[in-house]
Design goal:
- By secondary structure, the chain is of the alpha/beta class.
- It contains twelve helices and 14 strands.
- A hairpin with an 8-residue loop joins strand 11 (about 285-295) and strand 12.
């Protein structure tokens, strides 16, 4: 493909800051609100904007500290979000949260326990707001009640098949956590499955945390919520400090044990065909890919910023700056992934071919927003 075919329009250019929108779903009592409260406390300097159905269960102090009170919070008390608003109305709420003056880094939509997650995700993907990007469907399940929940709500199997990430919560309350994790895993379509108690999931698994620079007097936001002393509330009875999600010894604060990550750096350009084969076959449990790619002679002018969550994939061509070191830099995040094998597969995408592959870029360009061949938005498209 010629080098001028990609950059005659800014249609695919990524905005300066594009905020991920995470849909948080799960049946009543699964622990969604507890997980959201945990994220707000563990925001690590990031500002979380929340769209919630029932404001009463969210900790007001946590919202204030996370910078998500007032202009950064939208509360809907009139039923399920998927029923209460259409896509145009949701755009209004997302636009309010994504306004630069709010400083929001991630938006979390906490769906009602009776909401239809597929419709919520479709609404996010259909949004025309340039400042947001789909951040994944997170389904929370109650491990202790999972068998009964499936009997009462057989649609949960379909919800799990759509999820990008499944948080198996309340594992401390079930006699056979491994059985529940295996069963949930069998019902997903390559989604990452993460064990949890009290909704404790490392925020880095869901969004990029930034160091806190804002201070109140002599205290930073993080200082106000020092989690050497856990104060999670919501669905907990007792204290699970001293165990991990499966009841094994360890400190509950060591949340990084819930996921694996790989940093891949290469000074050799990647071949676009090989890269797309890798992405099309990305393994079960690989939840996020972020970074940028050098495609060498296939597009000498641009680097391609990549955003992948679950099966959703998007590329954003951006001109190389004169001072840029031309290299590929990617971070892969997942649960139970073989990081060594993934690194080897990415290494196999390298190519020092001196000339462009005439049709090699077609696969990549399908996932550039605004391109003619871009796939139609799907809840888990990509």
């Amino acid at each position: 493909m010629g080098n001028n075919s990609v950059h005659e329009t800014d249609g695919g250019r990524r905005p300066q800051q594009q905020i991920p929108v995470v849909v948080l779903a799960g049946f009543l009592g699964s622990g969604k609100t507890t997980l959201l409260n945990h994220l707000l406390h563990r925001s690590a300097g990031s500002r979380i904007g929340a769209i919630v159905n029932d404001f009463g269960a969210i900790e007001i102090d946590a919202l204030a500290v996370a910078g998500a009170l007032g202009d950064s919070t939208v509360s809907l008390g009139n039923g399920c979000l998927c029923c209460a608003v259409d896509a145009g109305e949701l755009d209004v709420y997302l636009g309010k949260l994504a306004a630069p003056e709010t400083g929001v880094d991630v938006i979390v939509i906490e769906a009602s326990g009776l909401a239809e997650p597929q419709e919520l995700v479709r609404m996010v993907l259909a949004s025309e707001h340039p400042g947001i990007v789909y951040g994944g469907l997170v389904e929370v399940v109650d491990a202790a009640e999972f068998d009964d929940t499936r009997a009462r709500h057989p649609e949960i199997d379909r919800h799990l098949a759509l999820a990008d990430l499944v948080v198996v919560n309340k594992l401390d309350r079930t006699a056979d956590p491994e059985r529940v994790l295996a069963l949930v895993g069998s019902l997903t379509d390559r989604a990452a499955v993460v064990p949890a108690t009290y909704g404790r999931v490392d925020p880095e698994f869901l969004f990029d945390c930034r160091p806190s620079e804002e201070r109140i007097g002599q205290l930073s936001f993080d200082d106000l919520h020092d989690h050497d002393h856990d104060h999670d509330h919501g669905d907990s009875h007792g204290d699970d400090r001293g165990t991990d999600g499966l009841g094994r010894s360890g400190h509950a604060g060591h949340l990084h044990t819930g996921y694996d990550s790989l940093s891949f750096v290469s000074d050799v350009p990647l071949d676009p065909r090989r890269l797309m084969r890798f992405l099309d076959s990305r393994p079960e449990g690989l939840y996020r890919i972020k970074g940028h790619v050098d495609l060498g002679p296939n597009d000498l002018r641009n680097r391609y910023t990549m955003h992948a969550v679950g099966r959703f994939l998007r590329f954003y061509p951006e001109p190389w700056a004169p001072a840029d070191e031309r290299r590929t830099q990617l971070v892969l995040i997942g649960s139970g992934i073989d990081t060594e094998a993934l690194g080897t597969e990415l290494k196999g995408c390298e190519s020092d071919a001196p000339h462009a592959d005439e049709h090699g870029m077609w696969g990549v360009l399908r996932y550039v927003q605004g391109s003619e061949d871009e796939p139609d938005p799907e809840p888990c498209g990509g």
